[in-house]
Design brief:
This protein is mostly helical. The chain is built from eleven helices and no strands. The two termini are 15 Å apart.
């Protein structure tokens, strides 16, 4: 969408970086905690799909949403979504994914994207997506900030391992950026 609060939303860039970061971290997670690669990667690619749905299906509401975000940059997007729509983009995407028959692991990861303490069904997918969502910034950069210790324990990871993985992923910024540009062009044609 071009009406985003910061101009064109780097949807594909965020998706590609999220999926690549998930892929890099999966091999570091001990086998007993590790989610399946394909579904975890797909969760990363589709984690923000509800944003596109709002933008494409409800343009007037999306415009209003963007103005609220511009006026309140300190307020997390999910609070603005709940206020304006009564539902979040993650809920929209998860409901849509269920209707399409996308595996429950992906639906669970997306709907619990902002819940660091989720321990329910398929929690390893949701926990990994939450953690990676904290790492991948809106500008595509990766930053290791605050990550809850219980979450790291559930995934069998530590900060040093995550930092090393983030540095390795950063070595591929140019390739990941090129992939995002190709996906964006393909989406416009």
């Amino acid at each position: 969408p071009e009406d985003g609060p910061e101009g064109v939303t780097p949807y594909w860039s965020q998706s590609v970086y999220t999926a690549a970061t998930i892929g890099a971290l999966l091999n570091l997670i001990p086998r007993e905690f590790r989610p399946g690669f394909g579904l975890a990667y797909l969760s990363g690619l589709l984690h923000n799909f509800g944003y596109l749905v709002i933008a494409e299906v409800f343009p007037p509401y999306f415009s209003l949403y963007c103005r609220y975000q511009e006026a309140n940059p300190h307020v997390p997007a999910l609070y603005i979504e709940r206020f304006l729509f009564g539902i979040t983009r993650e809920q929209i995407a998860s409901f849509l994914f269920h209707s399409w028959g996308i595996p429950e692991e992906v639906c669970s990861a997306v709907i619990h994207l902002h819940n660091a303490s989720y321990e329910g069904l398929h929690h390893n997918y949701a926990n990994l997506l939450f953690m990676v969502n904290q790492l991948v910034q809106s500008d595509g950069e990766l930053r290791v900030g605050k990550l809850p210790e219980p979450l790291l324990e559930r995934l069998g990871l530590d900060r040093a391992t995550i930092q090393e993985a983030v540095e390795n992923i950063s070595d591929f910024n140019e390739e990941l950026g090129s992939l995002a540009v190709m996906l964006e062009k393909a989406g416009k044609s």
